[in-house]
Write a structure and sequence with these properties.
The structure is a homotetramer. By secondary structure, chain A is mainly alpha-helical. Chain A has helices at residues 20-24, 30-39, 45-56, 65-76, 81-90, 99-109, 120-133, 151-162, 168-184, 192-202, 211-231, 235-246; strands at 6-8, 13-15, 18-19. Chains in contact: A-B, A-C, A-D, B-C, B-D, C-D. Chains A, B, C, D: Pathway: Carbohydrate metabolism; tricarboxylic acid cycle; isocitrate from oxaloacetate: step 1/2.
Chain lengths: 250, 250, 250, 250
């Protein structure tokens, strides 16, 4: 058994080789720290810009099911803030933030990184044909609310491009979106999960932990919502109303 | 029912009044975003420096019980990264990161913010006397491993002071530590949880969500450990060894 | 490290000394099994009757905050039923089922088991005086909805009495309720949590795991609600309505 | 929004039409109650025997990863028993108890219930061929420890048969096991998850909640292990040893 991330003794804590007290605290900001922790090294300025943009875009999205679950949990266990946050994270599965993972997986399993630019259109056709044959939804495309264009997608893709991260994964996702639109005859813009999955793949993040970007972001959001719940509660009202309305008739 | 944090419609997402696409992504980094989300406004440069230092200091502390719980959970549910992170957070209660909350509560309930500098020593004597009478451990002092001086504490307190956040909460905690040492006749240095609780109180953070700083930080750490678990697993070995060793005799 | 509960090898699994295949499956029912697992031996018929009554009384209480949290979690992670149940359990803290623990703790810390019947009234006066002085709510008394008499309380106390479990803990709780009513001049009937805490204490259950009775019971309830959520969903509607209603004005 | 499970008001609580106080407490035992809660009616004696056998078989299996995660969580949050149980349940995913779901899904999606006995062998061949073609493991067969015969499987299948529940789902699973053994040329006995998945299908349980049988059972086991952890702790030792052993070299 071996973990290479941290070495600590009575005098010091070293994280990926950097001393927490002298090299990190006061010198490395939160975005850089998250990159260091996950990638094992500090980011370049370009990586830093792109990674911060990805996480920041997922921190807050209103009263999501995850936020409501956390607030309802806090109502019953106000002395266990961690249990409320844990409950909120538990629902960040395949349906919501988990779709980032689906897009990253699709692009990484297609070995986009090893392809030439010329090979991208053929890869995209293969992917769309396979998902169509298996009657599966292509991850990272379309959005129930932002039907026309997800406002965040273009911004994230621009920041990636400006910083040198419009590589094969992004190109492949764009090609998949175009091919899907033609093949399925529906407007299927890249959504924010798709953009994040593609850009995280450009940063070299294993698809199996891409859901983690959402977890890091949403933990921040959940703490903010629990603070609001303390000051201006809504969970009790939500509970009592729902219980009253949904009871079976006598 | 009302939540003031976020307003979203088909065209835009506004968070505490800022437009996510045009004002936040690419302009606000992760530390600033966390501050915005929780405080409802962007931080000053001084607040930003101090807040980043607090969170960064808690991201990683090796193979903690929380990390082991997350890795063992991942072993059984590798397709639910969020469940493994949630399991890891569930143990961040009163014993570990939760002690931040204890220190912040003690300082905030003493109404340190309303005291003059002259009143601090008397407040400290009251606090120590009360904890002593109730046979309770004073939160934020002492450390099982870093017996002499926690290397992180001095660094965090320096950064706070340099940025104008050595206010009454920090002064009161220092006075409590000195008084406790005299009264209990034991070396009781301020530990990292105490320093964070005091500095978070300087930043105006309600003690009831101070545990959240640890949750935000450790979620990052848990994602990194789960990535390591995928590449270089230890949970299965830990399980099999423990099961084998701890079985009752036949 | 030693765990005495279970011994398993390639051929057999022994639980508290009984062989799972030959002694337990098909011979021991679920209530007896839970008793065996927790107490380390099979129950007497009287213990069995009382223990089953306790657990059964907590299985279902409608669309509680815990049930809503589980259903909202399932909406985002339908392939992780365990995460939805875990989210639902996370809120069973001090406010709801956790109050069982408070009552059991109060009775066990008063060393009711060691008292004679004559000493009970004095113990009750001490307890009520102490909670009054500390301005704390006495656990196990009163109920927000069932103001007059909780219909379950009398039934549980009868079953306990019929089976020989109206011992000192139950007597002390009754004396505390009477004393509280006189001293605080309010109608404070024993509620179902109080009755369960007292009866679990009669069964010899450590107060630190009494919350577990509620966890065992509610896990059953959560599974049933998630099945209903699959067949007749309400979480999506609850989310969309709440999000729409609670948005801040433009 | 409508939930048909429970109706409660100030005077009574009705669960699937039965009054909790007069019809359930003291009359319905825990196994029957779980059946009532999930199926919406009380079980027949035969259903009761079979259902109890299924749940009882999963309560305890030693120091599993789930138990270790719960004990490590309790170490950090001893005042939140529910968080420790929730952490333990979080890992009951696809790898361990979740495999029940896989077996039940395979049998229910094959529409075993609608088949005649003559059609079973052909259904089994189709299933094995499909899993082989897709290079997927057939759920419910084989076991890492109990290589020859899982001691629980035969017992559960006997109890099912004795009570009239050796129907098409059980027959199909047996046919799949025989076909898999021939086709893959490996000994692949039905394991306990497979038997439970098949028998739960006989009882009419939707595969999407079959994982719930394991959750109900293991919650009991987790409470018992947390009681043992309080009396005879091992989590701290497990943590300190692992941290010490697995640190990277200086």
């Amino acid at each position: 058994m071996r973990s290479a991330i941290c070495r600590s003794d009575a005098d010091s804590i070293r994280i990926h080789g950097l001393d927490l007290t002298t090299d990190i605290i006061g010198k490395v900001d939160l975005g850089q720290m998250a990159f260091l922790e996950i990638w094992g090294r500090l980011p370049t300025p370009e990586e830093n810009a792109v990674f911060n943009a990805l996480v920041v875009s997922l921190v807050e999205h209103g009263l999501t099911p995850s936020v409501l679950a956390a607030r309802l949990t806090y109502l019953g266990a106000p002395d266990s803030l961690q249990a409320a946050v844990a409950a909120g994270l538990s629902g960040l599965g395949t349906v919501f933030v988990g779709s980032i993972e689906g897009a990253a997986r699709m692009l990484q399993e297609a070995k986009a990184a090893d392809a030439t630019e010329d090979q991208i259109p053929a890869l995209a056709r293969e992917i769309v044909a396979r998902f169509k044959a298996e009657k599966r939804i292509i991850p990272g495309l379309g959005h129930p609310i932002h039907k026309q264009v997800d406002p965040r997608t273009g911004r994230l893709l621009s920041i990636a491009a400006e910083n040198g991260f419009r590589g094969r994964h992004v190109q492949l996702l764009e090609a998949v979106a175009a091919e899907a639109e033609r093949s399925l005859d529906r407007h299927l813009p890249i959504n924010v999960s798709g953009a994040i999955g593609a850009i995280a793949s450009e940063l070299g993040m294993d698809w199996r932990v891409c859901r983690g970007i959402g977890l890091i972001a949403r933990t921040i959001g959940l703490v903010a919502h629990l603070l609001e719940e303390i000051r201006s509660p809504l969970a009790r009202e939500l509970w009592l109303r729902t219980e009253h309305e949904a009871q079976p008739p006598e």
